[in-house]
Amino acid sequence: MTEIISEKDTKSVAKLARIHINNDEELGYYTEQLNRILGIMQQLVELDVTGVAPTHNIRAADSALYMRDDVITDGNCHDKIMANAPNHEYGFFVVPKMVE
Amino acid sequence: MTRLIDLTIKEARESLAKKEFSATELVKAHLEQMHNTKDLNIYITTTPEMALENATIADEKIKNNEQRPLEGIPVAVKDLYCTYGVKTTSASKILHNFVPHYESHVTKRLFNSGAIMVGKANMDEFAMGSATMTGFYGTTVSPWKIKDQPDVKLTAGGSSGGSSAAISAKTAMAALGSDTGGSVRQPASYCGLFGVKPTYGRCSRWGMIAFASSLDQAGLFANNVTDGALVLEQIMGFDNHDSTSVNMKVPDLTALLNADIKGMRIGIPKEYLDNNLPEEITKMWTLGAKLLEELGAEIKEISLPHTKYSLPVYYIIAPAEASSNLARYDGVRYGHRTKEEVSSLDEMYALTRGEGFNQEVKRRILTGTYVLSSKHFDSYFIKAQSVRTLIIQDFKEAFKQVDCILTPSTPSAAFALNQKFDDPVMMYLNDIFTIPASLAGLPCVSIPAGLNQQGLPLGLQLIANSFDEVNLFRASYALEKSVNFTANAGV
User: Fold this and answer.
1) For residues A13 and B99, what is the distance between their CA atoms, to the nearest angstrom?
2) Catalytic residue at B92?
3) Residue spans of beta strands (DSSP E) within chain A
4) Contacts with A95 from chain B: Cβ below 8 Å
5) Chain B partners of A86 at a C-beta cutoff of 8 Å?
6) Is the pTM of this model over 0.80?
């Protein structure tokens, strides 16, 4: 299998994605798997798409995005927003104390 | 005597209206069946008390002749629909304790039509998978068995495998699933059920836990086309909370029950044949076309020349969108948070996400992050979106010549759960027939078409043009009637 990405690349992608990789074994695993997946994507190289507009939203062609009236539709739901927080105090989300 | 759990929705509605039995009895029968099939691990959360309370309300409505279209019908809901006050996990550790304070648009519509939820169905974590075996809550087992090999455990398909098993095991009469690349059609095919995904934009995605937003669409499972139509009519419709929701009249699908298909043009895409397909699949496909032809349809060969690029396009776009959607799971506002000592906020995010997501989800987030990174953005992501345009154009051209397209739903029947999949690409090939229509946002169904030599169901897929659910259901009713599939998992 041709190597499209190296372990170093995987490491930097994981850093960007904020995903902790536990050890070298795991790093090797993801690198191998990603190479397989990126491998099938190379098929697209042969295709010339000059002048073809990319599709971001498939509904864009047949309907304009809906615009709602600029009015307040919710609010007063502070408790609901906080209800699932791992930690909150004084109405704020709490994260561990950091000294950087 | 017919058991209550063997009835169709149509039959149950009629009997409930005639007060031959109560909604409470109907719900109780399904809850009992749920208990009897616990080993299959179909549900992540069951809601029996709530279901019985709602059944009492349903009985009251029926007594007063105020019943709504699905009054008293027990349903299962895939665990990615946010349900008010009921734990919603998307089968992930990172959401293992998440209790929504709002109701998804689709479940709101379903419950407002009188349907009663019996539980939240298992799935692949964040709907990423094809076998319902990657989730935090374990593997769902299909109630179907290989003839003469009752000990081999089979997949119920994925990612909506809990929903398909819920219907096959008769624990509910319909089930909500979701379909991003085939997650309703493939499990429907494996479990001998009718499965439908309407046109992208027909159902609001509001309150559905997002995987790939440009592809995700609600879908459902039922025992037959009529039941599917009854439920689908209730869950489609405009919602101003979803900017891709389409404000368009919902078609009357049950009215099409006896419509004929004389003169309907059915396309057979020649590119789908070139796939080393097993003979049992091509045979069933040919038979399906023949049956439709006998009913007066015109069968035409069509070409969808960019078909072979669908898989790479999908496996760029879906992970890219997923990596963005799943960035919200940071351990700050809801869900799992790491217990480790951390020295920075970034470290807390990384550890939380490392612990909270499974391998498949992490693999896709990493893939998505890679193809979206500035160095590869144009060569992967924009390229894939451009090829997606070509795939959409292929279908547009095809629908100038035909009304519906007929293909197999999957390249095989359900596989054994103990099969090893070291190569992720092998697993991805399961979706080879379902992905192209997803990329084009088209409405499609899977209809059970027969059993293979092992006694396992095989499904046929019908695809229609955008917003043409009418022709999709016309063809579905016709195909269902002439195939006359009567097998079930025997539970």
Assistant:
1) 31
2) no
3) 88-89, 92-93
4) 332, 345, 348
5) 331-332, 334-337
6) yes
